[in-house]
Amino acid sequence: MLIDTVAWVRIENGHILCARPRGKDVFFIPGGKREGAETDLETLVREIEEELTVFLDPGTAVHVGTYEAQVPGLSEATVVRMACYTADYQGELVPSSEIAEVAWYSYAARDLVPPVDQLLFDDLRAAGHLVAPS
């Protein structure tokens, strides 16, 4: 089974924005699953507005990469695909009722995020975008 998701990559000062949904104990790159025939950008704009109450400007979106990994705790046949984009935003980053908290992670927090997010962390560190452990 394939879980098709889209994620927003927001990096500031060498740290990436992560969010922890209510009822979960793991932080994820913000984003979510496509609904119906939504495009990547339609999904991204909707999900980020729902989760973080900001509006992404789709005209500034840049594809960072697409990653696939198994989902811990589910069947080995279950894979998540995460299409990642950067984009400018308007508004104040505030967790919605869906999100318990947000955090800014450096590369040192890599082991705290799911496997598919770890692949993104690795690429961002290799490109010099994430602060490396000291």
TrEMBL record:
UniProt GO MF annotations: hydrolase activity
Gene3D superfamilies listed in its UniProt record: Nucleoside Triphosphate Pyrophosphohydrolase
Keywords: Hydrolase
PROSITE patterns in the cross-refs: NUDIX, NUDIX_BOX
InterPro entries: NUDIX_hydrolase-like_dom_sf, NUDIX_hydrolase_CS, NUDIX_hydrolase_dom
One Pfam family in the UniProt entry: NUDIX
Stretches assigned to the Nudix hydrolase domain: 1-126
UniProt protein name: DNA mismatch repair protein MutT
